[in-house]
Amino acid sequence: MAVHQRTRQSEAQLLQPKVRKVVDLARRLYLLELEGFPETFRPKPGQFLHLRPTKEDYPLLRRPISLQSYRDGVATLLIREVGIGTELLHRARPGDCLDALGPLGTAYSPVRSGESVLMVGGGVGVAPLVAAALEAEPGALVDFCYGVATAGEIQSLDFLSGRENEIRIHVSTDDGSSGHHGFCTEVAERLLEERRYAKIFTCGPWVMMRKAFRLGSERKVPVEASLEVQMGCGLGACLGCVYETPDGDFIRSCIDGPVVDGYGVSWENH
Amino acid sequence: MGSLTLANPVMPASGTFGYGEEFAGLFDLNRLGALVSKAVSTLPRHGNPPPRLVELKSALLNSIGLQNVGTQGFIEKKLPFLHDYSPPLIVNVVGDSVEEYREVVEALDPHERVSGFEINLSCPNVKKGLEYGTTCAGVERITSALRAGTRKPLWIKLSPNVSNPAELGKAAEGAGADAIVAINTLGGMVIDIEKRRPVLGARFGGVSGPAIKAVAMKVVWQLHEAVAVPIIGVGGITRTEDAIEFLMAGATAVQVGTANFVNPLTMIEVIEGMREWMGERGIKKIREIVGAAHG
Ligand SMILES: Cc1cc2nc3c(=O)[nH]c(=O)nc-3n(C[C@H](O)[C@H](O)[C@H](O)COP(=O)(O)OP(=O)(O)OC[C@H]3O[C@@H](n4cnc5c(N)ncnc54)[C@H](O)[C@@H]3O)c2cc1C
Ligand SMILES: Cc1cc2nc3c(=O)[nH]c(=O)nc-3n(C[C@H](O)[C@H](O)[C@H](O)COP(=O)(O)O)c2cc1C
Ligand code: FES
Question: Which of A28, A154, B97, B242 could join B237 via S-S bond, C-beta 3.0 to 4.6 A?
């Protein structure tokens, strides 16, 4: 476990966690469990690891992956295999050492006692929301809209229940094989009609987040969204990962994001 | 490096290391041979619309477009932090006109912490900058104008997107450049066939990373035969052996760019690796291997 100095700018460190387990959930969808982090590794919900899939020159860049949970020294990542990098990570075996930079980026705001928060996540976008729900204070209420393509892709979130707060999972599937038949934003809309939420957290495909943002903005509810932008360094140095604000500014999503105020994103420009 | 002496020949390539702060927590910046800033223009620049990065096979295509805080922003927000570190600080300068380059150089020249300037003639992302970098007359004109504006080391950074880089190097040397930096990124683009559109917001970008090393090597080789001033080799360096190859082609120092994104410790590993490599072969001075491949 080689650990280098902490940054002034962020708490990012170069880490060499060991693979504990690779759990297949569905075809090309898996959980990667990592362990062997130092004491100083204290990720916040919404932050990510920048993982190097190989020591070779191809694929070249690191891959940003959200931390779904960090409990008892074990970090769990929820990964969809979409290309060469996530395929190589899928091939990792228990005991393998990975090259990870992190934790990086901004976090979701804390879910306080007495607050009701609506979480809207699609696909692997649920990962940082699970992290946020896990950190919810006792006495908080979380309505968690969990959207996937089909029932086989749902992971068990039992570890979210039996806590001193109320976390209600509302599953929706595109094919109707489990829960609501349709989009998770439809479930979110229904919930918003029944209850006043302190804030909405969202992560997933752009169109889904845009819908979640509109639902929130129509009701003047604060929205925090986690953006997925192609990244280079992950450290704020290359200016490659910028997104545009309504004022026309370019903001780095690795340092000033990925979790950002939904009202500071140009949702139409994409 | 002209009037500059470096503790070691390894430094970051402009634009891949921010203004240093971003990497300061991962290793001690004092271990670097020099610090090289992101491009600085007179006024702050927004840069190009996203997307700005596309990953290629063993390479990266970028169209950052010289987003930067501007000269005043650099002085107020970035310089104070850099005062805490000792390696020479080289400021990368861009402009849309000879006057703009000169304004930046003259505004920064009085600052003691600024050790020298690297003139970016070659960024393929901006339209007008390229002209200065493609003809001998253009390179001469801008180099002599800037030479008149500063006595500090003046490095001219060349574009590979020209047919005669060595002659441009010679033109820069003739007009008073203290060193030639080669190369900047190679112009390129990628098209999304489903959307039937270029992927980059700015359409074109610059290719960097391991895949361009061979291109950079040839330019450094040719420069070594054409100029007497030191050459700083840059392009695709990821490991010790790459840096040594550049020295043997004729470089006196090297810059590491894209590799910083992949392994932030690349420069430190190359510094240590070179020391070891030379030690094992009884090589005492870098000078002994500079240009060694020319026979
Ligand atoms: C902050 C953040 C958190 C993320 N968290 C997760 C997560 O928890 N689980 C998960 O499965 N995926 C997550 N992603 C997306 C994941 O990074 C990409 O799917 C992955 O990089 C794809 O790499 P690849 O080599 O398999 O695919 P390729 O298509 O071969 O990748 C080519 C290039 O495009 C980039 N790229 C491709 N898709 C994306 C994307 N959706 N977003 C950003 N860059 C992309 C890659 O990094 C690579 O540089 C996250 C992205 C970001 C920005
Ligand atoms: C994201 C990025 C930003 C860059 N910005 C600058 C810049 O501001 N000024 C400049 O002279 N070169 C810039 N460059 C070019 C590099 O300094 C270097 O010349 C080039 O990337 C080749 O080296 P490499 O293969 O090691 O990356 C940039 C390169 C990248 C990848
Ligand atoms: S990824 Fe380099 S600045 Fe964000």
Answer: B242
